[in-house]
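Researcher: We plan to redesign the surface later, but first we want a full-length starting point. Tokens attached.
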């Protein structure tokens, strides 16, 4: 049977059993004692492939059984039917032969049928070339055979590590190298010009021709056929004598053959199209070629032994280890790209690569076979890595409170809280926000570590960390792109990495306005609503937009900068550099600015009011003065509320939400003025939209927690 992905004799790896048992390539062997028994099946019986089973007989081997197991059709269904047919026929053969060890090679779909049959019939399996990575369905098949096999012979150190990672027993893995390299590394000195002339013509010189070998990619047949067509077009344009081998019998091969015939490759003077080349002759052809092109594993593995330039097309071998002789054209989507690769590679000579073998694989494999104890238990064991004891039935685990660590980075304070699934703040920690990046990041890590340790004592299971911060944030990467002026040294800051590395927990980061909207969606008045907007009225003015139940970030993470909606063309300067923004009128900073002006002019304080000398004048003093009848303070608040109201009208006309939620310390002072402005200025169709004051105490912390809790309970964020 064909145990690789090349046309039969063009498969040097299939010489494994030839080397072991002095016979020919491309069959499956069973070892009974030390007498090999040969089952010839699959494509070796095809007349299309010149009955390559005869090569086995010419090497003085008796073929015990010939099985026809390939269903013609060359599509996905035919591959499945071929596996099924093999599973039907193989049990009788294996019952008759009763082998001690079955040697299975590679990653072909028909090899999977053999391994499945042997495993279910309690026959020991030795798998050759497991642990490798290519890039197609072959990977899945190869790894499936690995799990069925009892013993493993691999070719590279990486493949050995992959097998160990797949929980295979290290004592049953042999790093031998590729058996075909035993022949390849000693083959180059043989007479080769007569072979080149026989296959390519009398006028062809060494290093002045190309070998092309391309197969369908079963996971993307349509693209692989198009890529083959582009390859042939590039080869025609390159105008060098080319030996083209027919593709293997995988799904899509029939369409590839049609492409060859449509382009007249079999009759083109520069091309020789063949279905089969004897192995020894194929070695000489690739060893002395000016270049090999295609997507065969032969190109990226065996040809490296000769230093022949190789152009590997597409993704079929994308995971293979390769030598420096291989040029990858992974996106082979244009003729020009392939043609450029031919110009770069043709005629070069690279150092010989020994990634896949040193020429001594066969003696190692024979020694390994002899060491197998046929009396040891057949049941294979897997070497799973140690795992923590399962405590899912422990009462303390059952009673744990699923929680999140929430971090709020404000202009003044840095707060960390343990927040439960129900939105309860179990414990909160507050520190002044340092002025430098170094001090700030160290304090965040320190507070989070302390909170995580305290969570264990409080029987809270922390699922992750959510961070709310001012400024523009890339939530996908967990990076603060640009901060507000209130938080210094806070631009282009990666918050996710240091916290995740320290706490070994997933970390989410977002803007404080967005977090307020998330808090309302999960815990507040936005719960269950499809569309609503949250406006934060604090030191600055921010916001968040929920549309169709999801948070809107915008193309550059700048959505919902509602504080910078312009409501006056000649208004006061804003911290963003513009003027007339809502924030320039209605934020805590704006009110503080106006309060200081009044205080400097002795127009702020009224009877029953005082400001201690060591206390800075702020927005709350302005509000207090307004409540005590200060007409100028009342006018300033009315102007601020009007600006905010106009901003809300713009939001209603733009977003048409079903609810607007005012959040923050100033919300209750603005709510009535905002509603008045809506009645006066808004279109009648949106005047019924409700505007409410948030009833959440810590929206930033709750929003930060909701990022963790929503995701870990399988809500998409």
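Model: Full-length starting sequence:
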């Amino acid at each position: 049977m064909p145990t690789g992905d090349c046309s039969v004799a063009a498969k040097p790896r299939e010489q494994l059993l030839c080397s072991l048992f002095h016979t020919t390539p491309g069959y499956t062997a069973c070892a009974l004692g030390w007498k090999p028994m040969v089952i010839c099946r699959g494509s070796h019986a095809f007349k299309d492939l010149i009955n390559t089973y005869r090569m086995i007989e010419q090497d003085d081997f008796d073929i015990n059984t010939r099985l026809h197991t390939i269903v013609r059709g060359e599509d996905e269904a035919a591959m499945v039917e071929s596996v099924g047919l093999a599973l039907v026929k193989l049990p009788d053969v294996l019952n008759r032969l009763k082998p001690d060890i079955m040697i299975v090679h590679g990653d072909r779909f028909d090899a999977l049928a053999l391994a499945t049959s042997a495993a279910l019939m309690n026959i020991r399996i030795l798998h050759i070339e497991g642990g490798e990575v290519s890039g197609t369905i072959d990977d899945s098949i190869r790894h499936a055979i690995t799990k069925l096999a009892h013993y493993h012979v691999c070719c590279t150190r990486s493949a050995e590590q992959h097998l160990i990672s797949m929980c295979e027993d290290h004592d049953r893995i042999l790093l031998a190298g590729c058996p075909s390299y035993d022949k390849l590394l000693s083959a180059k000195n043989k007479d080769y010009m007569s072979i080149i002339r026989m296959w390519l013509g009398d006028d062809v010189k060494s290093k002045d021709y190309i070998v092309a070998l391309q197969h369908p990619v079963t996971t993307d047949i349509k693209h692989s056929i198009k890529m083959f067509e582009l390859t042939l077009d590039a080869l025609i344009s390159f105008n060098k004598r080319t030996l083209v081998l027919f593709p293997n019998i995988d799904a899509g091969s029939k369409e590839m053959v049609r492409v060859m015939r449509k382009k007249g490759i079999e009759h083109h003077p520069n091309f020789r199209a063949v279905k089969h080349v004897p192995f020894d002759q194929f070695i000489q052809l690739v060893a002395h070629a000016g270049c090999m092109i295609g997507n065969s594993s032969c190109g990226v593995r065996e040809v490296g032994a000769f230093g022949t330039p190789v152009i590997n097309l597409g993704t079929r071998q994308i995971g293979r280890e390769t030598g420096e002789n291989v040029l990858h054209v992974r996106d082979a989507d244009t003729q020009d790209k392939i043609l450029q690769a031919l110009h770069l590679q043709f005629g070069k000579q690279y150092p010989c690569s020994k990634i896949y073998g040193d020429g001594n694989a066969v003696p190692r494999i024979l020694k390994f076979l002899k060491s197998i104890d046929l009396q040891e238990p057949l049941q294979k064991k897997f070497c799973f890595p140690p795992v923590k004891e399962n405590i899912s039935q422990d009462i303390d685990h059952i009673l744990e409170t699923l929680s999140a660590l929430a971090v709020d980075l404000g202009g003044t304070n840095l707060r960390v809280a343990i927040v439960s699934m129900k939105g309860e703040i179990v414990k909160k920690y507050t520190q002044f926000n340092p002025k430098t990046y170094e001090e700030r990041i160290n304090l965040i890590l320190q507070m989070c570590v302390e909170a995580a340790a305290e969570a264990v004592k409080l029987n809270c299971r922390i699922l992750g960390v959510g961070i709310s911060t001012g400024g523009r944030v890339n939530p996908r990467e967990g990076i603060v792109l640009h901060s507000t002026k209130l938080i210094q040294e806070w631009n282009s800051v990666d918050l996710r990495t240091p916290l995740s590395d320290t706490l070994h927990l997933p970390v989410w980061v977002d803007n404080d306005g967005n977090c307020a909207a998330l808090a309302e969606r999960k815990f507040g008045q936005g719960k269950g609503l499809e569309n609503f907007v949250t406006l934060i009225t604090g030191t600055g003015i921010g916001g968040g937009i929920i549309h169709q139940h999801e948070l809107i970030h915008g193309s550059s993470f700048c959505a919902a900068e509602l504080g910078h909606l312009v409501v006056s063309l000649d208004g006061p300067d804003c911290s963003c550099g513009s003027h007339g923004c809502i924030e320039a009128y209605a934020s805590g900073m704006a009110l503080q600015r106006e309060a200081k002006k009044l205080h400097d002019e002795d127009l702020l304080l009224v009877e029953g009011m005082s400001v201690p000398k060591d206390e800075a004048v702020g927005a709350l003093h302005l509000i207090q003065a307004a409540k005590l009848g200060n007409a100028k303070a009342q006018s300033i608040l009315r102007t601020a509320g009007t600006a905010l109201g106009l901003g809300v009208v713009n939001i209603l006309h733009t977003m048409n939400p079903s609810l607007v939620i005012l959040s923050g310390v100033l919300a209750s002072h603005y709510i009535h003025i905002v509603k008045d402005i809506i009645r006066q200025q808004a279109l009648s169709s949106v005047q019924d939209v409700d505007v409410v004051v948030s009833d959440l105490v810590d929206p930033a912390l709750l929003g930060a927690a909701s990022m963790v809790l929503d995701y870990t309970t399988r809500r998409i964020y």
